Amino acid sequence: MDKPIEIRMATPEDAPMIAELSRSTFYDTFASQNTQENMDKFMNEQFTFDALVQEVHSPENIFIIAESGNEVAGYARMRESEPPPSLNELPSIEIARIYALQSMIGKGVGNALMKRCVEIAFEMGKRVVWLGVWEKNQRAIQFYNRWGFEKFDEHDFVLGNDVQRDWLMRKTLG
């Protein structure tokens, strides 16, 4: 039987673990759909261990950790950032990442993280939670659709030298 998923707020001490988890889950998820050259460039220039550690310490970021038993299963990063103009200046917060270990996909990690992200946004008085997702990541898009997110815009995401399209999706909070 699978252990229940527990969610907790990340601490500064979690930064190295979050950085390693970020890099490994990103690579595991996207390496097969991108060139090695573009993955290497992205991982070595934009998605570096040090840059990811600094994100944990940045005050505009909120990190939550999913654990199953005593094992880390995934995490989410929310951030207060300049929202896309198409959100019409509604009070909003971005879910910048929801990452789960490959071995934990399908075991409730994403649902537990998303539930807590929505609760945090609501507690902060936000009206909208939004995110960007690669247009080719159908599993993630289906997950977000199940949570009531809908596409409202698009923007470019540069992975290495490859300009890709991300869908911007939003969920209006009650």
Structural account:
A 7-stranded mixed beta sheet has the order 1-2-3-4-5-7-6, with helices on both faces. Strand 4 (92-100), helix 4 (109-123) and strand 5 form a beta-alpha-beta unit. The protein is α+β, with helices and mostly antiparallel strands and 174 residues long. Helix 1 (15-30) packs across helix 3 (49-57). The longest helix is centred in the first third of the chain and has 16 residues, at 15-30. The protein has a single domain, classed as Aminopeptidase, CATH 3.40.630. The radius of gyration is 16 Å and the shape is globular. It has helices spanning 15-30, 36-45, 49-57, 109-123, 138-146; strands at 5-9, 61-68, 71-79, 92-100, 128-134, 150-159, 162-172.
User: What structural class is derived from the secondary structure elements?
Assistant: alpha+beta
| Strands side by side in the biggest sheet | 1-2-3-4-5-7-6
Q: Average the pLDDT over all residues and give the rounded result.
A: 93
Number of strands: 7
Oligomer: single chain
Strand fraction equals 25-35%
CATH class: Alpha Beta
